[in-house]
Design a protein that fits this description.
It is built from three helices and no strands. The termini are far apart.
Length: 70
């Protein structure tokens, strides 16, 4: 059984902040996953959306395009 590795939250935050300008350049898999999730989301008149893992906002923009009343 593999042991869990505990991340130092301060270190994670510091490293992400330090390299945030590169995130979109290397986020191809995140973009593909977002597009796949959006394509599977229901076509309804949704008015409220909470994007808790918004990163740099790409998924939020896709949600806004599909659910323009939200």
């Amino acid at each position: 059984m593999r042991s869990c590795i505990r991340a130092d939250n301060g270190m994670v935050e510091n490293n992400f902040s330090k390299h945030a300008d590169l995130y979109d350049k290397y986020a191809d898999i995140q973009c593909l996953a977002a597009k796949e999730l959006i394509s599977k989301s229901p076509d309804r008149n949704i008015r409220n959306i909470l994007d808790v893992g918004c990163g740099t906002g790409n998924y939020t923009l896709l949600l806004r395009e599909k659910y323009n009343l939200a």
